[in-house]
UniProtKB/TrEMBL annotation:
PANTHER family: DUF1684 DOMAIN-CONTAINING PROTEIN. InterPro entries: DUF1684. It comes from Candidatus Frankia alpina. It comes from the Bacteria. This is DUF1684 domain-containing protein.
Amino acid sequence: MGFTEEWERWHARRVEALTAPFGPLSSLCRGRAYRSATSSDVAGLSWANPLEELTGTGSRPAPGTLRRVVLDTPLRGLGFYADLTNRQKTLLGQEGTYGLGLSQVEEGEIRVSHGAMEVFEPHPDWVVPAVFRPWPDGSIVPVEVPSTKSGTITLTLVGRIEFSLQDGGTRWLAVSPLLQGELHTVFVDLSRRDRFPFRFLRIPAPDDDNTTVLDFNRAVLPLAAFNDRIPAPAPPPGNVLEVHVTAGESHPQPDVSDILEYLDS
C-alpha cells in the first residue's frame, strides 16, 4: 500500500470515528439537522469548491494545500427516531439542537452537520525519523498547562522526542505516555496563525533503541477546536516549532451552509 492510500484510509477512519452517531461530535458538540437528498454517506468528502466537484476527481492537489472535509453524521442504521431512548436522543442532539419532527423520517434521510475542517494534503516529507529521550532515571515530570476552557490541566511528561525537519535543524517536543508504549505530544507551529492554536500528535511506541517515527500528516485537532466548552491542554513550555507544519488537520469550519444547500439541491 502506498503512502497516499495508507493516509487516506487512516483519515477516513478518523472522520468516521469523529462523526459516528454516538461518537465525540454527536455527543459533545451541537449539530445542525437537515434532510438529505440522498441516503449515501457524505462524511469525509473533500470539497475544493462545494458548488463544483469533489477534490480528487481530477489531478491531485499540491502538497501543503488545504482540502475541506465535511463532518456529517447520518441517522442511517439507527431506525426511526421515535424508537430511540431518551439517552440516545440526548446524545444525538445536545440541547435540543435536532429539534422536533424527526420521528416520521425514513432511515437515512436525515443527516446532522457538525461543520467541516480544513486538512492539509498529505506528503511523505512530513514523515520523519525520531529518537525518544526519556528523562534521567525514567522520571515523570508533571507540568500544569492552561486549559482551553478555564483553569489548568496537568500533563505527565516522560521525556522528549528529537527529530529533524526538511530545513535540517534539530528540534524536540516533550511527550506524554499513552497505552502500549505509545507517546503523545501537544504542539504549536507557525501555520497556526489565524487557525486553532495547537494540535495533537500520536507517536508509535519507540523500538528497543528508542527510535520511532513522527508523521505530522496525522496531526489532529482536539475536540476543543469544534466546541469551546470541551477542555483541552495547551502545549507545555518549549513545544513550539518555528516552522510552518503544513500537514495534518488545520482548522474547524462551523459554517458549511453552502455545502448543505448543495447536498439538498
